[in-house]
Design brief:
six-stranded mixed sheet, about 550 residues, binds 2-acetamido-2-deoxy-beta-D-glucopyranose, Immunoglobulin-like, 6 helices, 3 domains, mainly beta
Length: about 550
Amino acid sequence: MAPFLLLELLNRLVILALLLGSSSFCDSGKWVWFNVSESFRLLFFRVIPYQVILINGQFPGPQLDVVTNDNLVLNLINKLDVPFLLTWNGIKQRKNSWQDGVLGTNCPIPPGSNYTYNFQPKDQIGSFTYFPSTGFHRAAGGYGAINVYQRPRIPVPYATPDGDFTLLVGDWYKTGHKQALQASLDSGKSLPFPDGVLINGHSQATFSGDQATLSAGKTYKFRVSNVGLKNTLNFRIQGHTMKLIEVEGSHVVQNMYDSLDVHVGQSVNVLVTLNQAPKDYYIVASTRFTPKKLVASGVLHYTNSKTPVSGPLPAEPSYQLHGSMEQARTYRWNLTANAARPNPQGSFHYGKITTTKTIVLSNSAPLINGKQRYAVNGVSYVNADTPLKLADYFNIPGVFSTSSLQTVPNGGAATVATSVIPTSLHDFIEVVFQNDENAMQSWHLDGYDFWVVGFGSGQWAPAKRSTYNLVDALTRHTTQVYPNSWTAILVSLDNQGMWNMRSAIWERQYLGQQFYLRVWSAVQSLANEYFIPTNALLCGKAVGKSH
Ligand SMILES: *[C@@H]1O[C@H](CO)[C@@H](O)[C@H](O)[C@H]1NC(C)=O
Ligand SMILES: *[C@@H]1O[C@H](CO)[C@@H](O)[C@H](O)[C@H]1NC(C)=O
Ligand SMILES: *[C@@H]1O[C@H](CO)[C@@H](O)[C@H](O)[C@H]1NC(C)=O
């Protein structure tokens, strides 16, 4: 075992100190300032400083606590020396892809300047995240939590927890700061194995003294998001079971789990009842499906505990890929529970709607001009100099292509393009992610959540539709696709705009495994989509246009 790994296994981190350390603000009708800067932080062993992206001086960035339908006015000041954008992972930006914060919708914010995002978590509830979408900045942090609470008088299907904690977990590379990793990807190399795992920015930390305490007999909510770059993480708490209550905005059937696999880009919420002897227990996040294991641990500290954590860390579960797929199938909608709106989730009978189109997306890792790229249906995405959304709005030709990416794999040689799949507003589509690679995949769609109706091994075929869950599949914004397997989703295209569909595995996204879904209607109406924001930044071929 590598020495640093051993040290990481030995690390002690009192979770409450971390949780209390992240400030939260915002209560209603909210002005938020995000000052983005760069500095050095001690992350491992508390000896060597690593370069990280800070928001308001914090890593992870401030936790945004908001209520369903709050209007956020978030002024981001870019104090880095490179252009920058944040995107709001899982916030649906209803009628408002203008605020999505990816390079296909927004011009990057130049160094030393600012952009004020205006957006609303419309009809949403749950745990989401934000992170940098430009360059490979996400490898240097800049991420944080967005917790969307229910409005007054909207019930949730569980008793109010005695406390509510946010855990951002992710793999981390210390091989160099962001430019080094980015340069390595640019030169055509794929990412190496990471160097560690962080929980709220710490892998090894010792805190002492005055932590708030968790009392025996009480029940706490833990919001766990995988903000890492590449690896699925398994989350577990020594001696305790977890009751799953919410997944990316869906209230689920409340099953008990000893451990949960959280794939890159995903979020889960659990309740944990402190029903064990009052002592300290490990909280663990560790890499999955990798020959070598990386582990971060924290400590769950009961009031009056005089017994520090002891014994080995709780072991990784014995289930592997197949068991993980089985676990994923147990995530189901509670049909009678509501989500952010008062009507029951199950009143939308998604399984009875006829699909208007099937899109099969196959991921691959081709070499193009001798360099490692990643592709979907043989097309590796390259950013344009002009956001596609602006090109569409100003009718600027030649920025993107709606014909390069076919909606079924065609087996041809890999190419590069700024690829867009055209669709119509109100289409109800089936998307099959076919993963013929021997690597874990995670797919995300901006602007939407979707029903994850099926997981299976090998090749998808139309006959596999008979295995779909058409009754109580949950909706979420990011789904895993197991190696040499497929995942099927259904999407109700009710949100007009230009929406990024991407691998959440960040080197794959960076090296081309993404495209945009243009959800369009001939009738241009405010009922379907908001006007271009008056402060929209203009760049590329949109410079000098008036809005
Ligand atoms: C952001 O920086 C500005 C100066 O550029 C300062 O006035 C402001 O207080 C800072 N805000 C936060 C939240 O750190
Ligand atoms: C930059 O911030 C100012 C407020 O300090 C705001 O009025 C302006 O609209 C912001 N710029 C953009 C492009 O959003
Ligand atoms: C589903 O939600 C309802 C309504 O809140 C609740 O009474 C019920 O216990 C939940 N069922 C499960 C299986 O979680």
